[in-house]
Write a structure and sequence with these properties.
about 210 residues; mainly alpha; single chain; about 0% strand
Length: about 210
C-alpha cells in the first residue's frame, strides 16, 4: 500500500509539472503571436519587412509577411511579384559572375529596387485600408476596389516584364560565353520593366 501511495504521489507531481509546462508553452506561443500581430499591424513595418525579405530573397519570410495582408485579390499577385523580383536579383548576380557587363547588372538591380519600393508602398496601403475598413473586401468603397483591381493588373505587367528580363539575362550569359555578344534584349526588357513600375507607382500615388 505504501508503494502504491508513493507511486500515486509521484504520478500526481508529474501530471502537475507537465500541465504547468504545457500552460507555459501555450502562453509563450500566444505572447509571440500577439507580438507578431502587433508588429505587422503597423503599415510601415509591414512594408519595410516585405522590402527587406524581397531583397534578401527569402521566400518563406516573404510569404509570412504577405500572410498578414488582407485576403483581397491584390495580395497573391503582390507575393508573386515579390518572388519574381527576388529571383531577378539573384539572376543579376549570376549574369555578372558570368561576364555580363556590370553596368547592365547594376541597372537590373536598380530597376528591381525601384519595383521593391513600389511593392512596399502597396503593402502599406493595404494595411492602412485594413485598419480603416476591416478585412472584408466588399466593405471597401467601390472606387477603392476598382483602383486596387487596377493595381493587380499592374502587378501582372511587372511580373511579365521581370520574367522576360530573367530570360534575356540568361541569353546574355550564353552569348557572353560564346562570343562576348551584346545584350539588346536585356536593354529592351529593362525599359519594359521600368514602364511597368511607373504604372504601378502612379497607382500608388493615387489617394483614397
Amino acid at each position: 500500500m505504501e508503494l502504491l501511495f508513493i507511486g500515486f504521489v509521484i504520478f500526481c507531481v508529474w501530471a502537475y509539472v507537465s500541465e504547468k509546462k504545457e500552460e507555459n508553452r501555450k502562453r509563450e506561443v500566444a505572447e509571440a503571436e500577439a507580438a507578431r500581430v502587433a508588429r505587422f499591424g503597423d503599415p510601415a513595418q509591414v512594408g519595410g519587412e516585405l522590402a527587406w525579405m524581397t531583397r534578401q530573397g527569402d521566400p518563406l519570410r516573404m510569404r509570412e509577411v504577405v500572410a498578414y495582408l488582407p485576403a483581397w485579390p491584390v495580395r497573391d499577385p503582390l507575393l508573386h511579384t515579390a518572388e519574381w523580383l527576388a529571383e531577378l536579383t539573384a539572376n543579376a548576380g549570376v549574369a555578372e559572375a558570368a561576364g555580363v557587363h556590370k553596368d547592365i547588372t547594376d541597372r537590373v538591380r536598380a530597376t528591381v529596387e525601384a519595383a521593391i519600393v513600389e511593392l512596399s508602398a502597396l503593402a502599406v496601403k493595404q494595411v492602412s485600408l485594413l485598419r480603416l475598413f476591416g478585412p472584408d473586401w466588399k466593405a471597401l468603397d467601390a472606387e477603392i476596389r476598382r483602383r486596387l483591381e487596377a493595381q493587380t493588373g499592374q502587378l501582372g505587367l511587372v511580373c511579365s516584364a521581370a520574367s522576360s528580363l530573367r530570360d534575356s539575362l540568361g541569353v546574355a550569359v550564353v552569348e557572353q560565353r560564346v562570343n562576348g555578344g551584346g545584350v539588346p534584349a536585356v536593354e529592351q526588357d529593362l525599359h519594359a520593366l521600368a514602364d511597368a513600375i511607373r504604372q504601378l507607382s502612379q497607382g500608388n500615388d493615387q489617394r483614397f
